[in-house]
């Protein structure tokens, strides 16, 4: 199975390759050597977490060595807690201890947590050194490793400190997904489904046909789903690099209600993917009421999410509490909750929904 390459071209930034394929971690070092920004780079710092380190760190470091990089590593705790200013500072200290200069490269080996953390670390160390993303979760391959958003969390909220930092290269080795559990797998599937609804008929109906094979982790289908999602995300990011034009907000489809579900159920009760899938089901129904979303879409999306292992949740909260949680989300505007609604597959609209309308729909959802 040959590797696929997607080129990401963000205006004002160096173009970068996203390579997707099984076993390509072995050629990471050789490929990095050919990235113009890394031609003379001698040292690499692999940032990874405690789950991923025993699985893939040695392979990554061996491959970097073959490319002529002297590689060190830092292992952080697994999970969202690693996305903190304190952990970022520990990595900066480790880099200084290792005497890493501006001519080093940071290699983020792990899921979105490691990618966001290491990308942020790279964005600020010595005013910026290159970062390479080596995503090892389906979610990070299809979503977080591309687009350049990096950052850490504060007590006050998620991702409150960060930087836009495009990677120099992305290596998505689908063989690393073999060790990913079902819950994390489904998280990636939810973001793929989200991308397909927002993107086009072509992507959506391909995914509808491919859903069973994707759920069964068929290698060719997995790679194609990742490639299609990366192309979609790259196009959105190219159109709205710093999330200032309203285009990038489409990536929030399903996340408005989804974030409220995650928060009110208690973080970790439902996976991010399960919550986003629920949010997509809700947003499509809200769309049917507000922007004439066809019922065919609502039903086809339900079936797609079912097939991907993302069933409707048998959980609900008080509608008033849901409304309050959605208003606390940073995407609320002028007191109204803003939704990405699909007018049709490949055609979306931002809609500020007033409290009474939203309450009546959340009430129907909660029954
Ligand atoms: P994660 O990084 O926490 O990984 C999930 C779990 O899987 C962790 O326990 C991790 O150790 C483990 N893991 C990783 N790779 C594995 C493998 N190959 N085999 C076995 N276990 C493995 O979570 P995630 O879902 O990848 O990413 C979530 C993070 O991404 C959140 O912090 C979110 O804010 C961020 N995010 C960022 C963007 C962006 O644009 N920057 C977009 C979406 C999400
Ligand atoms: Mg998400």
Automatic annotation (TrEMBL):
| Reaction(s) catalysed by this chain's protein | 7-phospho-2-dehydro-3-deoxy-D-arabino-heptonate = 3-dehydroquinate + phosphate
Q: Where in the cell is it found?
A: Cytoplasm
In terms of superkingdom, the source organism counts as Bacteria
Q: Which cofactor does it need?
A: Co(2+); Zn(2+); NAD(+)
Q: What class of enzyme is it?
A: lyase
Provide the alphabetized UniProt keywords: Amino-acid biosynthesis, Aromatic amino acid biosynthesis, Cobalt, Cytoplasm, Lyase, Metal-binding, NAD, Nucleotide-binding, Zinc
What family does the Swiss-Prot or TrEMBL record give for this protein? Belongs to the sugar phosphate cyclases superfamily. Dehydroquinate synthase family.
Protein name as it appears in the record: 3-dehydroquinate synthase
Species annotation: Rubneribacter badeniensis
The major lineage groups are:
Bacteria, Bacillati, Actinomycetota, Coriobacteriia, Eggerthellales
The gene it comes from is aroB
């Amino acid at each position: 199975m040959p590797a696929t390459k997607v080129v990401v071209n963000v205006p004002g930034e160096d173009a970068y390759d996203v390579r997707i394929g099984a076993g390509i971690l072995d050629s990471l070092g050789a490929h990095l050597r050919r990235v113009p920004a890394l031609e003379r780079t001698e040292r690499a710092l692999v940032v990874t977490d405690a789950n991923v380190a025993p699985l893939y760190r040695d392979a990554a470091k061996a491959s970097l060595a073959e490319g002529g990089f002297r590689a060190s590593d830092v292992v952080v705790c697994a999970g969202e807690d690693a996305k903190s200013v304190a952990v970022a500072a520990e990595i900066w200290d480790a880099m200084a201890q290792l005497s890493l200069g501006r001519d080093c490269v940071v290699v983020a080996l792990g899921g979105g947590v490691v990618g966001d953390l290491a990308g942020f670390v790279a964005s600020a160390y010595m005013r910026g050194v290159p970062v390479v993303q080596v995503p090892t979760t389906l979610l990070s391959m299809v979503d977080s490793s591309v687009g350049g958003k990096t950052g850490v969390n504060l007590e006050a909220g998620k991702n409150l400190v960060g930087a836009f930092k495009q990677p120099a290269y992305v290596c998505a080795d689908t063989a690393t997904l073999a060790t990913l559990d079902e819950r994390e797998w489904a998280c990636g599937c939810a973001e793929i489904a989200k991308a397909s609804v927002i993107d086009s008929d072509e992507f959506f109906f391909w995914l509808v046909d491919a859903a069973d094979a994707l759920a069964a982790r068929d290698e060719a289908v997995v790679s194609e789903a990742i490639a299609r999602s990366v192309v979609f995300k790259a196009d959105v990011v190219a159109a709205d690099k710093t999330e200032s034009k309203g285009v990038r907000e489409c990536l929030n489809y399903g996340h408005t209600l989804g974030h409220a579900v995650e928060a009110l159920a208690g973080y970790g009760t439902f996976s991010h993917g399960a919550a986003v899938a629920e949010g997509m089901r809700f947003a499509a129904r809200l769309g049917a009421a507000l922007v004439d979303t066809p019922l065919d879409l609502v039903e086809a999306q339900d079936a797609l999410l079912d097939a991907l292992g993302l069933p409707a949740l048998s959980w609900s909260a008080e509608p008033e509490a849901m409304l309050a949680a959605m208003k606390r989300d940073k995407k609320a505007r002028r007191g109204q909750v803003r939704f990405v609604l699909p007018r049709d597959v490949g055609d979306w609209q931002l809609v500020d929904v007033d409290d009474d309308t939203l309450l009546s729909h959340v009430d129907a959802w909660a029954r």
